[in-house]
Amino acid sequence: QKEVEQDPGPLSVPEGAIVSLNCTYSNSAFQYFMWYRQYSRKGPELLMYTYSSGNKEDGRFTAQVDKSSKYISLFIRDSQPSDSATYLCAMSGGSSASKIIFGSGTRLSIRP
Amino acid sequence: NAGVTQTPKFQVLKTGQSMTLQCAQDMNHEYMSWYRQDPGMGLRLIHYSVGAGITDQGEVPNGYNVSRSTTEDFPLRLLSAAPSQTSVYFCASSLGWRMPPTNEQFFGPGTRLTVL
User: Fold this and answer.
1) What share of chain B is helix, strand, coil (3-state, %, to 5)?
2) Radius of gyration of chain B (CA)
3) Which of chain B's residues have a Cβ under 8 Å away from the Cβ of A97?
């Protein structure tokens, strides 16, 4: 079983929709949770990070962590065509503190 | 700052050949890492380094070697290329490695490798 599971999609929604992207994980020692965004043929870039359970908001983006369920989410409000990309969750912490483990990524397309 | 640079951008190898993928960063980052990205598999960690002279294995280290003789450079060596190593390889660096935001990974542009 992979440590981090992510639905690969693809996910296609109309412009303006609310998007929900999710990851589950099995390692309860993970403490830090990150979302990276990757445009086609580019390297990933950090979008948001959180330390603990709860919500963190940054503009149209909200990251949510539920450590009891080992489940994290990224919500995108008022989605724009420029949000079309692959979104990867990533985690680290505990005995794996020096390793960042990525999910497989969800490919998102926003239709104008 | 050039950030993280990788060479070459593209490479085709025959089975059994060896080669080195180059990675350099000019941000004085302590942590450097190599990932491979395959369809449906996401980014998988190959090797990483928490400082010059220190390297360790990631999730998929077999068939690859690394060394870190300077802070700036972290080359990845393919010892005897196999078709299963066909992938996109990303080098990344970060200021630190313990927690965000210092462990924010800055990625290079990637090397697309095909092994025939």
Assistant:
1) 5, 50, 45
2) 13
3) 97-99
Q: Is the dihedral of CA A104, B52, B110, A79 positive or negative?
A: positive
CA-based nearest distance B45→chain A, Å = 7
Burial of B83 (0-12, 13-18, 19+ CB in 10 A): exposed
Classify residue B4 by burial, with Cβ atoms within 10 Å: 0-12, 13-18, 19+.
buried
**B21-59 confidence digits (pLDDT tens):** 999 999 999 999 999 999 878 899 999 999 999 999 999
pLDDT tens, position by position, B98-108: 888 888 999 99
Sequence-distant (6+) residues with CB within 8 A of B69 are: B52, B53
Closest chain A CA to residue B4: A43
- Chain A CB within 8 Å of residue B41 CB: yes
Q: What is the sign, positive or negative, of the torsion defined by CA atoms of B58, B61, B67, B71?
A: negative
